[in-house]
Every structure is written in structure tokens, then in C-alpha cells.
């Protein structure tokens, strides 16, 4: 980005009055999303997507757990250690992980795309 392009982003909006509770809530939401308060307000006002960083980290952990579950399942099958009871437990665990992941994705669809 050239110096003149950066300069264009320095236009200031007037002060926004709000209650102290609202200010605290906005600041907490911005912090949870891992962005500045100004960036949070810009995205909110323009209808852009705001995804909390914690959500993406949690989603990645859920995906990793699902991959590890599948790996354990196939390894146990190769070794002949898989029983119908264990197979059902693996299936139930994977189904729970999928439901949790879908909740994250459904929540993120409530925001509009950039």
C-alpha cells in the first residue's frame, strides 16, 4: 500500500456517544474478535463479517480431533482390535464433533461476507 493510500484511511468520523455499558460491551466484542474497536465498529456498520479468533481456533481443534478419531479408528481396524461397541463409540464421537462444528459454521453464516 502506497503512502497516499494509507493517508486516505485517516478520515475521522465524529464522536459517537454511548452509555458506559455499551462502550464496555463494544470493546469486549472487539477484543474477543481480536481486532481494534475502530475496526469492529467499521465492520459492524458496513455489515461485514466479524469472526472471533477464538472461534476459528476452536474450529481448527475440532477438525484436528475428528482427524485423530478417524486415524485411531483405521489403525484399530488394521490391528483387528475394533469391536462393534468401540465402532459405535467412535461413530457417536464423530457425530458429536460434526454437530459442534456445524454450530460454529451456522453461527458464522449469520454474519455477512466482506
UniProtKB/TrEMBL annotation:
UniProt-recorded name of the protein = Ribbon-helix-helix CopG family protein
Entry superkingdom = Bacteria
Please name the source species. Answer: Serratia fonticola
